[in-house]
Amino acid sequence: MTRESVSKILSQESSAEELWMALKSGDEYALERLYRVYSKTLFQLGISITGDPDFVQDCVQELFIDLWKYRENVKKTDNVKLYLFKSLSNKINKEKKRLNRWNARQLKAIEGLPQYLESVETKLVNIQREELLQKKLARALNELPVRQNEVIQYLFFENFSYEDTAKLMGINLRSVYTLAWKALSNLKKSVLMLVFLLAGIAS
């Protein structure tokens, strides 16, 4: 007897339990028949658990997809309806928990979004402020007298000590201190106004 003829007999004469066994054996028509017999009742059950028709419909369809996918491992049962009811209830509860976890993560992400955006904005402002200050500092350095510029380069950009700077410039240590103090004073005057301006913008 061919599978087609078996399916025809099943569709006309078999009980739910026989359809179940046929499903386990790989009979697609048995799956289709079970869906036709129980899908409406399962949908009504799902609506009684949760009031979301689309969600329930998805769960019912996924239930039968899983039945076919894992048919070889499906347990034997004397009450197919009860088995399907329990399976649907478990699937709905599992999906609801998964969605709740997802929603909780989304809510947490949304709640943290303003702080994140504020942090990004602050970083951008700080970067812009830093770029402006660097440009202003570079301009101020170029405006320094040659020896003052030189002492700043050695001390703060090359990280030489005051003693090494004195040797490099061929002057005594006291002169290095004097040049550095004058250079820093001039730089402060040049940059201070920009710092105050940026501070006012940021606030």
From TrEMBL:
It holds the Pfam family Sigma70_r4_2. It comes from the Bacteria. The keyword RNA-binding does not apply. The lineage of its organism: Bacteria, Pseudomonadati, Bacteroidota, Cytophagia, Cytophagales. Signal peptide: none annotated. InterPro entries: RNA_pol_sigma-70-like, RNA_pol_sigma-70_dom, RNA_pol_sigma70_r2, RNA_pol_sigma70_r4_t2, RNA_pol_sigma_r2, RNA_pol_sigma_r3/r4-like, WH-like_DNA-bd_sf. Belongs to the sigma-70 factor family. ECF subfamily. This is RNA polymerase sigma factor. Residues 136-183 form the RNA polymerase sigma factor 70 region 4 type domain. The keyword Ligase does not apply. It comes from Negadavirga shengliensis. Residues 34-100 form the RNA polymerase sigma-70 region domain. Keywords: Sigma factor, Transcription, Transcription regulation.
